Amino acid sequence: MDHLILLFARLTEFAARDRPRKIKVQAKAEEEKQNATAQMPPNANGLQPPPQPLRMYGMMPAPGHVHLPAAFDQSRQDHLNESNKIIVEDAELESATSAAEREWSDIWAALDLLEAAFGPAFQPLSPDHMTPLSTPFGPALYYRTYSIACLTSTFFTARIFATRVAPSMPPAAMAAAGVAAQRTAGWATIIGRITAGLQPVSSTAPLNPSHGAALMDCCMGLFHAGVQFREAAERGWTITNLRNIARLTGWQTAALIASGCERAWIAAAEMGRGPPYTRTMNATAKDDRVSGRSRASNLGPPKDNNDRRFIHVNPGTRVYWAIGIIGMEEDMTQMKLE
């Protein structure tokens, strides 16, 4: 587990450093798209523009905009200087992209090396030693110990995370999750099957501490996998089991993760990147992000920095959503991290 946590640290540090480069690449691509659109001929019927009259310098200027000779045009030199600057910036961006791809490949190779070190003890139990349990992801997977199940789930979570932060992926987490969904679908399914194998047989019997800790550990992997689920059965199973974990263990972060998944599915549907989803809410929850209560909006802004009578603090939303997992494009533009 120590090696896996260190790899997560490398991935997180790499994603943070590579984010400014991704934003530059995205801005450059958008600029090139706008330039290509602006250079399209305005005449859609294919007719050639009328010929321009021959310009005779030193005589009566022709009607229309007058262009200076190249020898007297200072803007031409400024344009050349700007072009040289763009060429240098493009070369630096290409160099940074190549370095990012090499570093990401090294991390991915480290994940491959760790997976190769897993011995037979890390393999799931055979069907003869498992209680058959059908889930929307397939039959539940069982392992020899809770810790092995959690480690395996965390490892596949690292695979998903590494794929989404690859240099070729968009900077926004939700956009990257959508682009990489086809490649990470298999790992997300395995995480669902592992989590199903950890679920208690009885929803009323008390849990022993090690089982409760395993249920809590599997929530983060289910969060990374759950945001890309599209099938209604998979989504319903995820929300139900996360809320059951919150109820059985008392760890209310599991309920918050369930609400985060729902928020991601709703946002994806609004952007046309996923099927529609109707959020389910727990009206009795104290946390406004779980209950669905909106923040009070009838209070105006403070009149000055010293007047705190109009400042409203909502303790239920002190810490908001995990931008690193369900962040949108607008979140990336609003963040000014260096």
Characterize the structure shown:
The chain has 338 residues and is mostly helical. Helices cover 57% and strands 1% of the residues. The chain has 11 helices and 2 strands; from the N terminus they run ααββααααααααα. The protein has a two-stranded antiparallel sheet with strand order 1-2. The longest helix has 44 residues, at 74-117.
Rounded average pLDDT: 78
Roughly how many Å apart are the termini? 31 Å
User: Which strand order do you get reading across the main beta sheet?
Assistant: 1-2
Structural class: mainly alpha
Count of DSSP H/I helices = 11
Shape from CA axes? globular
- Give the strand content: under 5%
Spans of at least 5 consecutive residues whose pLDDT stays below 50 are: 53-60, 296-303, 315-321
Major sheet summary line: 2 strands, antiparallel
H/E series: HHEEHHHHHHHHH
Instruction: State Rg.
Output: 28 Å
How many β-strands, per DSSP?
Answer: 2
Helix content: 55-70%
Can you give keywords for this protein?
mainly alpha; two-stranded antiparallel ribbon; globular; 338 residues
Task: Note the topology.
Elements: H1 2-38, H2 74-117, E1 134-135, E2 138-139, H3 146-164, H4 173-179, H5 181-198, H6 209-226, H7 232-249, H8 253-270, H9 288-291, H10 323-326, H11 329-334
Antiparallel strand pairs: 1-2
Helix pairs in contact: 1-2, 1-3, 2-3, 3-5, 3-6, 5-6, 6-7, 6-8, 7-8
Briefly characterize the structure.
The chain has 338 residues and is mostly helical. Helices cover 57% and strands 1% of the residues. The protein has helices at residues 2-38, 74-117, 146-164, 173-179, 181-198, 209-226, 232-249, 253-270, 288-291, 323-326, 329-334; strands spanning 134-135, 138-139.
